[in-house]
Amino acid sequence: MRQFISSLLLLGLIVCEEKLLEISSIQVKVPRGLTRGSEIVSDIPFRVSTTTSEDVALSLVPNASPISVSPSISPAGKTFHLLVTDPDELYANSSFTYELQAIGLITGYSQSVPVKVDVEINEGENPQFDKDYYEFHFEKNLLKRSEIGIVKLVNSYDLADSFAYTLYGSHADKFDFKSRGSVVTILGIPCNGNEGRIHNECTLPATTRLVLEAKSLSGNTSQTVITVAQPQRSSPIRFTHPLYETTLSTVSGLLQPMVVTIAKGGDQSSIIYSLSDKTGLFSLHPTNGLLSIQHPEFVDTSTLGMTFNLTARAVDASGNTQQATIVVHVKSGMHTERKLLFEQDSYNLTAAPGESGLGQLRLQSSSTRKGVTFSISEGLHDDIIQIHNRTGELRYMGEIEKEDQTFDLKIMASTTHSFAIVPVHIVIRGIGSCVPKFASKDIIVTASRTLPVDNVIHEFAASDCDADAALKFQILTTTAKDMIGTPLQDPDFSRLFRLDSNDSAGRLVLAEDISALEVISLRVEVQVSDERHPGEIPDRANLLILVQALQSSQSEVPLLQANRVPELLTLPANLAVGSYVFTVSAKPSIAEGRRSEFWFELNNGMQFFDINSNTGEVHTIASLRNETELHAQVIISHLNTSSSVQVPLHISISPVIERAPIFSSSFYEHFVDESTQPAAKIMMVAVDDTGDTIRYQLEGTDAEQFEVNEKGEIYLRTELDRETKPKIQLFAKAIDSLGKFDIAPVTMTVVDANDSPPFFAARNIGASVMEDAPIGSFVVRAKAVDPDSSSLLRYDIRVPNQSSMLFKLISVDGNGTVTTAGSLHGLDGIVFFEVIVSDGVHTHIAEVNMEIIGNFDCHPTFDLNTEQGGNFVFEIQENAPTKFALGQVNSEPLDDRCHLEFALFDSNLQDFVHDTSDLSIDEQTGELRTNRAYDAERDPSRIPVVIGLRAQKHFSKIGAELRVIDLNDNPLTFAKEEIHFRVPENSRKGTRIGSVEAHDKDFMDQVLYHMAEPSDTFYVDTENGDIILLGELDRERADTHSFMIVATNSNNSSPIQSAMLQVIVHVQDVNDNPPHFLFDDQRILINDATVGGAVLLRISAEDPDYVHGEEKDVFYRIAGTTFEYRRMVHPTENVFSIEEETGEIRLEKSIKGFTGGRFNILIAASDRNDSNGHENFATVKATIYAPSDVVITEVAGAPSRMTKKVLGEIKRKFSMATDSDVHVTAVEFVTKAGESLKDASTLSLVFTGRDSGEPIPAEKMVAKMDRLRAEGVHNLPLVKSHRGFPTPSSGQDDTIAMVSSLAPVFIVLLFFTTLLVIAIFIFSVMVCMYRKRYRSANKLKDDLLAINNSHNNSVFPGSGKIIAIKNGNDRQPSSTISTPSIMDSYYKGGFYDVQEAKMHVVNPEDD
Question: Which one in 412, 528, 863, 1231 has a CA-CA gap of 20 to 30 Å to 1276?
Answer without folding.
Answer: 1231
